[in-house]
Amino acid sequence: MWTIVMTFGFFFTYSLTSPTNIYGQGYLFYYPIYNSLTLRCLFSVGTWMWLYLICYHLSVVANSKFDEKWYNLIVGSSMYVYVFHYFWLSIVLRAVLVFTNFTFAGNASFAFIFT
């Protein structure tokens, strides 16, 4: 019985707080994206509620070591990849953009395509 009530409650809450209304929307970079106060409040509360529930669920379920070797490889090497990726990317872009005589449009196109 509780499974049915919880499932119904989940879908009811999800339908109330998800941004599925196509009327009364604001601009693209306007958060919350609705002009109506009711829709803004529901969307804002829903955003924080779903973020909290997803973070809580993942901290309970996915915050454990599954295998020591793979855990150290994935978690330990991700910061090195992040830092050195940007370092080498900036060096290569600097070398290409400074030592070639592209125009501004050529430099912008090169940087946009190859990064």
Distance between the termini: 54 Å
- Helix percentage range: over 70%
Low-confidence stretches: none
What is the count of β-strands?
0
String of helices and strands: HHHH
* Number of discrete domains: 2
Specify the structural class.
Answer: mainly alpha
Mean pLDDT: 79
Question: How does the major sheet shape up?
Answer: none
What fraction of the residues are assigned to beta strands by DSSP? Answer: under 5%
Please count the helical segments. Answer: 4
| Shape field | flat
Radius of gyration: 23 Å
Structure description:
This protein is an all-alpha fold. It folds into two domains: 1-64, no CATH class; 66-115. Helix content is 73%, strand content 0%. The protein contains four helices and no strands. Helix 1 packs across helix 2 (37-61). It is flat, with a radius of gyration of 23 Å. The mean pLDDT is 79.
What secondary-structure arrangement, pairings included, does this model have?
Layout lengths: L1 H16 L19 H25 L6 H32 L4 H11 L1
Helix pairs in contact: 1-2
Defining key terms:
115 residues; mainly alpha; 2 domains; 4 helices; 73% helix
Quick synopsis:
The chain is mostly helical and 115 residues long. The chain has 4 helices and no strands. The chain has 2 domains: 1-64, no CATH class; 66-115.
